[in-house]
Design a protein that fits this description.
With 246 residues, the protein is mainly alpha-helical. It has one domain: DhaL domain (Serine Threonine Protein Phosphatase 5, Tetratricopeptide repeat, Alpha Horseshoe), CATH 1.25.40.340. Helix content is 63%, strand content 7%. The protein is built from 10 helices and 4 strands. The strands form 2 sheets. It has a two-stranded antiparallel sheet with strand order 1-2. A two-stranded antiparallel ribbon has the order 3-4. It is globular.
Length: 246
Amino acid sequence: MITYSCSDITITHQLGESKAEVLTRTGGYFNMDSISAAQAREMMVYVADAIVESKELLCEADRNIGDGDHGIGMAAGLDRCREELRAREFTDVYDVFSTSGRTMIRTMGGASGIIFGMLFYAGSRNMPPQSEIGVSEFSCMFEKALAEIQAKGHAEVGDKTVVDALHPMVVSLRHSSESALPFKEALRRAYLAAEEGKEASKHYVAKFGKAKTLGERAIGFPDAGAVSLSLIAKAMSDWAEMVQHG
């Protein structure tokens, strides 16, 4: 059993393995420049652990300006995603992300299922199989996800949606790719950008969903989707840090 710290929550990875065994199974310590299919699988399981553990936190975030059930859907979808990923081995990185996205779309339902499913599916579907990808390909995946999410929902930065956190995360990944930064640093910066965007969403008046009816009363609270996106980015960064240093 391996226990990780993630912001305000503790994530326990129920694998019954030592850290050395995890590293051996995933191909060793994290490569500075790329991520393998096995590592992508473990990273997404780690992300799922984080969201499942954050169920109540996300419900509370949604309760402030929404229906209060955001955490229930996110936890259910990521739990199923975790099951799908653990059920088989992967040799293609894009297959890991497309499987994750498809599972979330199929099991979560509603707007959150589409949004967070497309986060991983939009940029990985129909891609040529790759045993590993670098920061550039990873960045491109999320560029495509942002474009599709905005095309479907028409949200912009400042509308108090997941885009408030996703857009700065994508910009950060693009800059990391252009600067040829190592994967771990790219993920760390992506998380910081997403977190900053999530915090900024507190100051916006919502233009979508139930929060829209609250007008200025929604000011002071972050968008629940932006909170989820920040947690996902944090989990990715924490995973890379853990695997990099063992």
